[in-house]
Amino acid sequence: MPTIPVILDVDTGVDDALAILFAVAHPDIEVLGISCVAGNASLERVVENTLRILDVAGAPQIPVAAGARRPLISPARSASHVHGEGGLGTVHLPPGDRTPAPVHAVELMRQLITASPRPVTLVALAPQTNLALLLRQYPELAENIERIVFMGGSASVGNATAVAEFNVWHDPEAAAIVLDTGIPTFMYGLDVFNQVSVDQDVAAALEAGDTPYSRTVGALLTNRVARSETSVAEYTGLIGDAGAICALVDPEALQTRLLPVRVELTGYGRGQTIVDQRRRVGEDIVHGTAGSWEVVEVALDVDAPRFVSLFLTTLGL
Predict the structure, then answer these.
(1) What is the reported pLDDT for 288?
(2) CB 83 within 8 A of CB 89
(3) pLDDT value for 179
(4) Which pLDDT score, from 0 to 100, does residue 61 have?
(5) Cβ distance 263 to 180 under 8 Å?
(6) Region of 190 on the Ramachandran plot (φ > 0 left; ψ -120 to 50 alpha; else beta)
(7) CA 133 to chain centre
C-alpha cells in the first residue's frame, strides 16, 4: 500500500504528543509537515513541545511552523488544568537543535499541498483556526486535498461544556468554515476518543522503562486529570488524539456513519457539533427551518483493544 501523505495540525499537549509519535513511527504515514496553533497551550509552547517530541521520536527533519495565536473571534483560553502549564503534563523534555520553519503555518501548508504529487490528508488535532485561514485564503487547494480528518466534536456529550468538545468549542467559527468547504471530512470525536485507553499497569511499566522513549510515552499516558478543583486526579490512560491517526491506517476498527453535522455558534450550545442521527425526516426539514448541514463521516464506536494494540505495536512498545 502506498503511504498516506499527511499534514498534522496540532496544539501539542499530552495527547497530540502521542499522536505525533504514532504518526512518525507508522510506515504507512508520510508526515509532510506540522502546523501549530494555540489551544492546549500557548503557541510558543505548542511549537517547542512539537519540536522536542520529534526529537524523542528520532524523526527526520519534518518542517514545523507556528500559526494562529488565538481563535478567529474568541480569545485564547488555557487548558493548563488538563495539560499543565507547559502543555505536556509532568513530562519535561530537554531542548534540541530543531528550529521552526521561517514561514507562517498557513504558508507552509500551502507550499506542501501545492508541491505534493498526490492529494494530501489534513489531520486536525486542534482548534481548526489554521485550516480555516488556509481554506478561506486559498480555496483552490481543495483540489489537492484528499480529505480532512479532525479530532473534535461529539455526537453525544461534551467536555468543554455539557454539549461541546474542546477543539471545536475553542474556535467554533473555524470549525464551521472548514466543514463548509465541501472537502470530504471524517470526525473522530469524543464518542470514540474516550474509549481507547491503555491499561494502567502497562502505562506504569512503560514509565519505568529503560529508554527515554518508553519513559516519555508512559509519562504521557499516566498524566492525571483533576475533573474539578475539589476532585482527585484520576488515571485515564487515553491515547486521545493518536486515535484519529490510528483511524487513518485501520478504519475497519471503527463503526462510522455518513451523517448531517453542523456547528452551533450561539448561546450555551456554542461549539457543539450537532449530529443528526434521525432515521426519519423531522418537522424542521418538512417546514424548511433546518438550515444548512454538511454530510460528514462520523465515528460512533471503536474496537478499543484493537487501537491500543496498534498504537503500542507501532511505537515498538
Answers:
(1) 77
(2) yes
(3) 97
(4) 95
(5) no
(6) alpha
(7) 17
Residues in the chain with pLDDT values less than 70: 1, 80-81, 83-85, 224-232
Among candidates 116, 156, 113, 154, which has minimal Cα distance to 134?
A: 113
Backbone angles phi, psi at 294, to 5 degrees: -115, 140
- 8 A C-beta contact, residue 240 and residue 166: no
110: CB partners within 8 A, 6+ apart = 134, 138, 141
CATH superfamily of 4-314: Ribonucleoside hydrolase-like (3.90.245.10)
Determine the Cα–Cα distance for residues 40 and 167; give it in Å rounded to an integer: 9
Q: What pLDDT score does 226 carry?
A: 46
For the chain, the structural domain boundaries read 4-314
Residue 62 φ/ψ, nearest 5 degrees:
-80, 130
The DSSP bridge partners found for residue 178 are none
Q: Are 272 and 164 in contact (CB under 8 A)?
A: yes
Q: Assess contact for 147 and 244: CB atoms under 8 A.
A: no
The answer to whether the pTM exceeds 0.90 is yes
- Give CA–CA dist 69/215, Å, rounded: 31
